[in-house]
Amino acid sequence: MNGKKNFKTAMALFALVIVVFSMRISTSFASTFTAYLAAREFEQTMPGGEIVTMYGFVQDSNRNLENYCGEIPTAPGPLINIPSTKDVLRIKLRNDLGVPVSLMIPGLEQTSGKDPHRDDLDSTGRMRVTSFREETQPHTIGTYEWKTRPGTFMLRSGSNPAVQVQMGLYAGVKQDYRSTRQAYKEVTTRHIAEQMIFFSEIDPDLHKAVADGSYGTPAYPSTIHYKPKYFLINGGNASSLVVGRRRETVLLRLFNTGLQPRVPTLLGPNWEVIAEDGYAYNYSKNDQYSTLLTAMKTKDILLKIPSSARTGDRYPLFDRKLGLMNNVNVDLMDINDPESGMLTYLEVGARPRSGSGLWPWGAPKTSGSYDTDQNCVRVID
Question: Dihedrals φ, ψ of 224, to 5°?
């Protein structure tokens, strides 16, 4: 009996050693994709000409975060396209703002920089969370890491997110399943082309209060009084998005970076909602023409372009909650730009090229003013 018992114990210990060793091996061979970002302030011209102070992420072309080489921050920020062979995403962030910033990606397990930051904020001495993640202080560099998996995710600030995300600190993150044309493990998520579509909104009074330091005062105490006047798609005015040719299946990755829910609605062919927040549905939602996109949410949609479509055909995509007009004075009905707002067109045409690695989303309407280090040496992979 004792011999059998000792044998079972030895086998259990041996199995435990094998498991621990395997975990160490898998960890040591984990492949990491590293992105180098900076958080900076810039100015953007709204429809009608109003200039608004924004925050934004920018890719550091030197990949050393030591010099500023004239890169212009954007909102949305650069797309982080994680290769399917990578197991870990590492972001090194240089904070060029005057306030602390942190990074979080809801839906991905964060392994570094994940602890919340607390401050004694109220008169009773209670500790309040002011950031969901460890903060990178102004003019310093922080490192954040996540375990990766296939899906569509939103990178955003975890510090005072009701303000900093609205100021522009957000970007898209994606990883395909083994292939650049399959979004998830399910083979039904294969596609030929894709487009990323950000719905965002801007309250210029909030941006002004943050810029002049009056946010948190009686002049603008909190985002409870948030009243957006500008409604944007991909950070700007309406324009056509080329999605692909007839009979092709296109993946639409939708993001809502605002504080209010949106209802993207397509006129024309129906679509299939396949995932949200980076999690594929157990069943697809077929034959839909709209979907509820709540604040800070992502959704993946498959659209099959009809066989009857011709090159140049356009299908309107808009917000059914009617964020369709920018800077409207309801009392005077003063509409600066009636054709702007959350309205764009999905156009049938040549297949859009997919980005690889980390690439700029696009330049803002008006670039900011910066002191550029003329001794920068750009590194090209």
Answer: -60, -30
